[in-house]
Amino acid sequence: MDNKNNDHFSYPPDSDLDLSFTSCASAATTTTFSSSARSSLARSSLTLSFNESRLSSTTSASTSIPSLHSRPHRQSDPNWSAIKTATNLSSDNTLHLRHFKLLRHLGSGNLGRVFLCRLRDNDHANFALKVIDRDSLTSKKICHVETEAQILSTLDHPFLPTLYAHLQVSHYTCLLIDYCPNGDLHNLLHKQPGYRLPVASVKFYAAQVLVALEYLHAKGIVYRDLKPENILIREDGHIMLSDFDLCFNADVDPKLETRTQLGKKHRSRNACFRDRRPVEQVVTEFVAEPTNAFSKSCVGTHEYLAPELVNGSGHGNGVDWWAFGILVYEMLYGTTPFKGSTKESTLRNIASTKGALFNEQENAEVKDLIEKLLVKDPRGRLGCSRGATDIKRHPFFNGVNWPLIRTLSAPEVRGIAFKRSKSHISGMALQKRRQWWRKGLSFFVGRNKFSLNSNHNYYCSINNDKVRKHV
């Protein structure tokens, strides 16, 4: 059944799939794959097994639910090209589960199991297939499955998953999304000394999570399940949030707001030694935060629950910014700030008036950021009124080039190997580029026989386009 030369007509119908697995590799040909630390299956090569006794002419074939909109930011994704090719070559121009072969089990969650799979005729198109058995779920969990599928179908962002296909096979729901070979942030933290990351790495991962949350909130989606286990690491070292079954939707009113700030000091162009003076700049900011979001459902991971979730008084968008503060703290300290000996004691610590404890030698900026995110009253919590717009302006994120954040090189940390994108500029490449510019400038200065550092010569701008030399 693994023969790639077989066309799709030779495969049994998708409705006869029982999703059991048999190993087709011997111990001598075992291959090691990268996966999350929570993976519970260590087989080398797994293929679909079909139950012939379940063949029936009355069973329905798999159906592919079309995407709700195009994804312009992922048009260059080679996986999209592979999916389109497989769809066009299909006899009914529809993607089916039989077009894929399952390689191994990656892990299991609250709703279903996740498998690494690949298109049968393309060895380079790897995907993660989330398989949910609807017959084994309660009606409430089926609603969670529908919520996740609906949200995934609307996402188009570099730090969020792409839904390549939504397949209904008998009583199974299958969601085909990106495969992240470097596992999750939880696994990465456990490979670090003391489960802690350097501050520079914390800033990198926190900035990307912040941008992902900003996008979700701009669409009126409250995530409610932020934790290291749900932050996957792509092949290039950048992050991808996962698991959207606990999200809820709310209305959001996007708007442009203006504010004034002191900009860079200005020097007059009509004089050489006039004092520089600061100038006021009008800055326009995009703000889209679901401030009216409200729910009384108690969901999430206990160490990341916000106080308003614990006391059951109802919650909104602020739970995501609380969880963001917990995440930054855990990346720095290797543990969450309110963790107790039991779940009950952890919840009591969260609901109490006590704040988080910090190392006295801790970076003052990151400490201030965490304290403002972990304000127990959501009305005073950073981000609750203007979202990520205010958090981005915090001094801890100074130096982050937000428009180009997806092109930043991922930090090199223990226990992870990643493939750098061609668009990334490494520190070494940047250093060589600077050296090239210095050499070019020195050549130009030498030919024009003057020194930019001379104490005897200076140049003034006259009428904006003429230069006069004084000795």
Give an account of the 3D structure.
It is built from 10 helices and 16 strands. By secondary structure, the chain is α+β, with helices and mostly antiparallel strands. Mean pLDDT is 79; it is low at 1-18, 20-62, 422-430 and 447-471. The strands form 6 sheets. It has a 6-stranded antiparallel β-sheet. It has a two-stranded antiparallel sheet with strand order 1-2. The chain has 3 domains: 8-178, 2-Layer Sandwich (Phosphorylase Kinase, domain 1), CATH 3.30.200.20; 185-407, Transferase(Phosphotransferase), domain 1 (Orthogonal Bundle), CATH 1.10.510; 427-470, no CATH class. It has helices at residues 78-89, 139-152, 185-189, 199-218, 307-310, 318-333, 343-351, 364-373, 388-392, 427-447; strands at 17-23, 46-50, 63-64, 100-108, 113-119, 126-133, 165-169, 172-178, 221-222, 231-233, 239-241, 248-249, 255-262, 280-287, 458-462, 466-470. InterPro entries: Kinase-like_dom_sf, Prot_kinase_dom, Ser/Thr_kinase_AS. It holds the Pfam family Pkinase. It catalyses: L-threonyl-[protein] + ATP = O-phospho-L-threonyl-[protein] + ADP + H(+); L-seryl-[protein] + ATP = O-phospho-L-seryl-[protein] + ADP + H(+).
Q: State Rg.
A: 27 Å
- In the sheet with the most strands, the strands line up as 3-7-8-6-5-4
Percentage of residues in strands: 15-25%
Low-confidence stretches: 1-18, 20-62, 422-430, 447-471
CATH fold category name of the largest domain: Transferase(Phosphotransferase), domain 1
* Percent helix range: 10-25%
Number of DSSP strand runs? 16
Largest sheet: number of strands, sense, barrel closure: 6 strands, antiparallel
Give the rounded overall mean pLDDT. 79
Name of the CATH first level of the largest domain: Mainly Alpha
Structural class: alpha+beta
Number of domains: 3
Which sequence of SSEs, written as H and E, runs from N to C? Answer: EEEHEEEHEEHHEEEEEEHHHHHHEE
Annotated CATH architecture of the largest domain: Orthogonal Bundle
GO molecular function: ATP binding; protein serine/threonine kinase activity
InterPro entries: Kinase-like_dom_sf, Prot_kinase_dom, Ser/Thr_kinase_AS
Biased composition (Low complexity): 58-67
Organism: Daucus carota subsp. sativus (Carrot)
